Each structure stands twice: as structure tokens, then as C-alpha cells.
Amino acid sequence: xxxxxxxxxxxxxxxxxxxxxxxxxxxxxxxxxxxxxxxxxxxxxxxxxxxxxxxxxxxxxxxxxxxxxxxxxxxxxxxxxxxxxxxxxxxxxxxxxxxxxxxxxxxxxxxxxxxxxxxxxxxxxxxxxxxxxxxxxxxxxxxxxxxxxxxxxxxxxxxxxxxxxxxxxxxxxxxxxxxxxxxxxxxxxxxxxxxxxxxxxxxxxxxxxxxxxxxxxxxxxxxxxxxxxxxxxxxxxxxxxxxxxxxxxxxxxxxxxxxxxxxxxxxxxxxxxxxxxxxxxxxxxxxxxxxxxxxxxxxxxxxxxxxxxxxxxxxxxxxxxx
Length: 322
Fold this sequence. Notes:
Radius of gyration: 22 Å
Shape: globular
Number of helices: 11
Structural class: alpha/beta
Strand content: 15-25%
Mean pLDDT: 90
Largest sheet: 10 strands, mixed
Low-confidence stretches: 1-19
Number of strands: 10
Helix content: 40-55%
């Protein structure tokens, strides 16, 4: 091989290396974590705690960008259409798997337009009732819903929100007809439960338990398959209604086509961040259960199951929107 030919081949190799984000040094600039909600909510709060630790593990600055609106669809679409270079990440929630059933048309494909990095956290919910509702146990509560089917109201943070889904799933599995009353946020919904305008609510664990501790509502059950460590004496709904499980979650997604090498670097740094003791302590105060080992393949399967799970619930609840 002549010297000139060798230099030509070497130049081609260098050019390929520079043009491939998978082979080039990544990351070379800040990474944006898109939160499809307004600032100040639970997902935003977790995101801001997460980026501090995740960025250090990744070796760059990570910044939170709030792209709220249209039930998370604005922020989600922005990430779906972003360059597949590892610099734009979506922090998705259960809304990602519910929106395909809520809306006849989406501007993105919730599966094919994204690549999974990993599930980061699960956020359990709790079932609370107005203090004047004559029940104190889960069996009494379910019997009350059965006897008063069509006459009981439940509040939620809004159409398609995790609290709404939790109540709708209760109807779906239990065969009840509790009437949904949507509000613009969890706070006004809880205020009307306390005031007696709605009999019960499925709320996020931190805000719901805070009201329980204040004595303004009564705790009936939790919504994951197993009891929560924070409330070991409170039964899970599934103990009386097998198959019931409702919670929201936070997962990291990137645009489809992102290099597997970049995805692995994001995944491994996310895993290291989730093992950080200070982040674990903060997550505990937020009522979050952090994942031990985020895995792209496991998240793919999880989202597919979630989409299937909520499709029937949305259809039965007549909550579909155009």
C-alpha cells in the first residue's frame, strides 16, 4: 500500500468517526430533559432533582425544559421530532401510554417514534374518602360503592390524569359506576373531597397522605400491587380486587434512531444516578419508588402493556377525545 493510499484511507476513517455520534465523544454539550408539564408539578420536581445527579454521571450539564400543554402531547411531539443525537430526552409518564386511547389522532407514534432508555421511578397513589363517608376499611368502601353505584362522585386532577385513571380502573374492575368530576389540578380536587362535594379521590401518595396526616380525609387503600413501605398497615386495592394496579411513572425516552451506544451511555448513567443516596432520599419524600436497574427492552414491553391496559379502561369510561 502506497503512502498516499494509506493517508487517504486514514482520512476516510477519521471522517467517519467525526460524522458518527455513536463513535464520537458523547456528550459534547448539555443534554436537555424535556418535561411535558408545567414547572412546579411532581414530574418537574423529580426531573430537577434527577438532572443534577444524572448530569454528573453522564459527564455533562443536564437542563430541564418544560414543554407543557395538550395533555403532554406538545412536549412529547417536540422530542419525537428532535434530532436523534442523544441531546434531547423525554421524561414521560403514564400519559404517554394513555394518549393513544384518549385521542383518535396523534402527531407522533408513542412507540415507533421513540427509543427507550429506561424506567426511572414509579409514583404510587392512595384512595382517600371524605370524613363523613361511613366507611373505614377497604371492604366497607367497596361495598359502599356497590350499594351506591351511580350515586357516588370521585374527584381527579383532570381528564386522563393518573387520579382519573385510578378511579376509572376501580369502576372497570369493580363493576361500579362512580361518577368522575374533573378539576384543573389535584389541589382543587382534594379541596372538594374535603368539602364533601365528592366522596373520594385517588390521589398521589405524597399529597394524599399529607391530608390524611392532617385529619382532613380518611385513608382507605393504596394502589400498587403490594402495600407501600410508608403505610404497611393499609391494604392495597388488589387485596380485595385482584388485578387492580394503578400508578404513574417516569421513564426516559429519546427520538427513534438514536445510536445504541448513546442509549447505553444514557442508561448506565441513569442507573448510577438512581443509586445516589441523596436522590433516593429526595425521591422518598416525593413518594417515589426508584428503579434499581433501568432497561430499554423492559421499558419497551412495559409501555406496550400500559397501552393495552388503559385502552379498555378509556373505552369503558367514555373519556376519549378527538
